[in-house]
Amino acid sequence: MDKLVTLWEGSGLYNLELGQAVMIMVGLLLLYLAIYKKFEPLLLVPIGFGGILANIPEAGLAISALDQAIEVAKPAVLQQMAAALGATLDPLANAEAWRESLKVIAHDGVAPDQVRAARDIAVGVGYSDGMLYNFYKVAIGSGIAPLIIFMGVGAMTDFGPLLANPRTLFLGAAAQFGIFATLFGAVALTSMGIMDFSLNQAAAIGIIGGADGPTSIYVSSVLAPELLGAIAVAAYAYMALVPLIQPPIMRLLTTDKERQIKMTQLRPVSKLEKIIFPLMLLILVALFLPDAAPLLGMFCFGNLMRECGVVERLSDTAQNALINIVTIILGLSVGSKLMAESFLAFETLGILGLGIVAFGIGTAAGVLMAKLMNLVSKMPINPLIGAAGVSAVPMAARVANKVGLESNPHNFLLMHAMGPNVAGVIGSAVAAGVMIKYLG
Amino acid sequence: MQDLELLQEGLALMALGMGVVFVFLTVLVISVTLMSKLVGRFQPAPVAVNTGNKSSPSSGSSAQNDEVMAVISAAVHRYRSSRRR
């Protein structure tokens, strides 16, 4: 009978907490959105599955050896760890209370060497870091995965339309207003006492408006790792929603006549220009904004591999095999941050809300900037391509094209919209660099 | 009081961030335009495509190709020097 009780107490059903159950449902919801609604399935399938794995009770896939030991180890081990952490446990309280207090102690204000000592004890009695925890540490904690993805994006990007019409870079710059307006919005909500975000967290939330998955993950892993799960989910979910979010804003801000504006044919761009561009961008980054160097450096590297034409094998790997491998690991790592304690908070709703506002403001700023440029320049610019200034390559450009075709079925804006689109990638990486410099 | 400070910080970061993004991309626009002009001057776009296509098979090295290369480079040289005047 005792054995049966032990088995029951070791089962998932016995240990399932309400939060974990809810998070497993959230993971299933993400899988549903990915599989049936085709919301960025490449990312949301791994993220959703990772989220389910991370919330399996007792398995501790997403937590470190120390946390794992605190949660399930025998009282004797707990006492040992408390001694290593320099804390005393109330001998009258039961083991559950000990676990709670150890959890608090281990994460707040203890010297790193004490934490390490406690960890050594946990490892010594046979606990180890969870699989997803290791993934996270290697892929995101070190910053590698988002950067490799960025390299792959660079290898997939054709700067031709941008080089043919460099002024579209301004549209990519204007659309970054969404990032900073949202940052300010998050700070304003905090000062009104509705939410509670630090400036770092506000910056990480704002970057959702950059509509760039790897950039959002990179920035939040540096500035606010505790919000990473919610931010990554919001960023990818809204990127999938670009075709729904953008068109109403674009229609609201433009007249039918403006939407029909035809743009002049883009000039052909020579190969030499395409080779020089990533190098030039890299030098400018090195001169003016070294903090954007990890992101833009990898981006330029990927693009140079694509354009130089002598390392086709590397370029092919960067845009196919490598980016796929890294996407799997990145998705699972993000999923590991979908744990009940950090995700099921009122702040998550705030992040989701602010994220969509960031998208909207970015789109509007891009469109308005295009209208402004139309006033001052001779070459006509269709304001719709301004909306492509939020990155989300190539979805945003396709949306601009589609809305343009609704007004004039013979007006193809896709290539024109690719210019601001890739400019948006550069713009959001620059914005990320500024925020990391200012706050990091 | 502390809230006001946070708000100010947010505002400062917003202004600074937008400013830097715009300045950086303006510099980029200027340099791209300059670069395109320079490239266009030394290697006009249609010619660039042609030489790119021809020179890659010719690097497959044979005596004939060397002669062709010499003729092309002489022509390019004359073209450039005539253009500078």
UniProtKB/TrEMBL annotation, chain A:
Its cofactor is Na(+). Its EC number is 7.2.4.2. It is found in: Cell membrane. Heterotrimer of an alpha, a beta and a gamma subunit. Catalyzes the decarboxylation of oxaloacetate coupled to Na(+) translocation. Belongs to the GcdB/MmdB/OadB family. This is Oxaloacetate decarboxylase beta chain. It comes from Vreelandella titanicae BH1. The lineage of its organism: Bacteria, Pseudomonadati, Pseudomonadota, Gammaproteobacteria, Oceanospirillales.
From TrEMBL, chain B:
It is an enzyme of class 7 (translocase). It is found in: Cell membrane. One of its GO terms (biological process) is sodium ion export across plasma membrane. One of its GO terms (cellular component) is plasma membrane. Its cofactor is Na(+). Residues 47-67 are annotated as: Disordered. Keywords: Cell membrane, Ion transport, Lyase, Membrane, Sodium, Sodium transport, Translocase, Transmembrane, Transmembrane helix, Transport. Its main location: membrane. InterPro entries: Na_pump_deCOase (IPR005899), OadG (IPR023424). GO terms for molecular function: decarboxylation-driven active transmembrane transporter activity; oxaloacetate decarboxylase activity; sodium ion transmembrane transporter activity. The chain crosses the membrane at residues 12-34. It comes from the Bacteria. It catalyses: oxaloacetate + 2 Na(+)(in) + H(+) = pyruvate + 2 Na(+)(out) + CO2. It is a single-pass membrane protein. Heterotrimer of an alpha, a beta and a gamma subunit. Catalyzes the decarboxylation of oxaloacetate coupled to Na(+) translocation. Belongs to the OadG family. This is Probable oxaloacetate decarboxylase gamma chain. It comes from Vreelandella titanicae.
